[in-house]
Specification:
β1 and β2 form a beta hairpin. Helices cover 38% and strands 28% of the residues. The chain is built from ten helices and ten strands. The strands form two sheets. It has a six-stranded mixed beta sheet, sandwiched between helices. The protein starts with a strand and ends with a helix.
């Protein structure tokens, strides 16, 4: 299998604030790739750069061989990339059904109904919440809804930005299980930014470790998790 995502020599940030320095990153089709690092290392900025939400100064980003550098987010979405940010990206005053319908706004009514049945097969719990306002859902339930909304567009690449943040350990484990299910059972390539370093390494095949906007390690996750110098690598020492 080839690379789904290829980033080469990426320098990016926000306006004149330079965050990423000469980032090169490759994600093979069908894997879970973890991007790790301390706070402020630029992990989330990598995802935002892929999704067209930063200022790219130089370098290139390719998705399935197509150059998407500086492409607008709505066009990137239609290529099959889903970006799930850390902040709530749901409509709190709408119910679950309405949120799912909103996420499929480019689809026909028949396609929306078909996709809703599809996501409810993956997340059966959603059937119980269809008429509930999102405002009343727990953090874990909202995260499931966010994943379901992304799946309404049937992406081939899903990018998660700290999906288990602020969740209880039991709920976090359920979210990790669902991410693994999406990857293994539905063939979705995953890029995972996560603060739970050990679990992210256990779930992924490949890992990038970032420090101060630069890549400090690239390789198999199992090698990083067993590296006796992991602490120093993580801190950039």
């Amino acid at each position: 299998m080839g690379d789904v995502l290829e980033i080469s020599g990426l320098n990016a940030g926000y306006g004149k604030v330079h965050i990423l320095f000469d980032i090169s990153l490759n994600v093979e089709e069908g894997i879970i790739c973890a991007i790790l690092g301390p706070n402020g290392s630029g992990k989330s900025t990598v995802l935002k750069s892929i999704f067209g939400l930063t200022s790219v100064y130089s370098g290139s980003i390719k998705f399935k061989g197509k150059d998407i550098t500086r492409m607008k987010p709505h066009k990137i979405t239609r290529l099959g990339i889903a970006y799930l940010p850390q902040v709530d990206s749901v409509y709190l005053n709408l119910n679950v059904r309405e949120n799912l319908m909103m996420s499929g706004y480019i689809l026909s009514k028949e396609e929306i109904e078909e996709r809703m049945r599809y996501v409810c097969e993956i997340f059966p719990v959603l059937k119980e919440y269809m008429d509930k306002k999102v405002l009343t859902l727990s953090g874990g339930e909202r995260q499931i809804l966010v994943m379901a909304m992304a799946l309404m567009r049937q992406p081939s690449l899903m990018m998660f930005d700290e999906p288990t943040a602020h969740l209880a350990p039991k709920v976090a484990n359920q979210i990790f299980d669902k991410i693994r299910e999406l990857n293994k059972n539905y063939g979705i390539t995953v890029v995972l930014v996560e603060q739970n370093v050990r679990r992210a390494l256990e779930e992924s095949e490949k890992a990038y470790l970032m420090v101060s906007g630069r890549v400090n390690y690239c390789g198999p996750s199992r090698e990083l998790i067993s590296n006796e110098n992991f602490g120093k690598l993580f801190l950039g020492l």
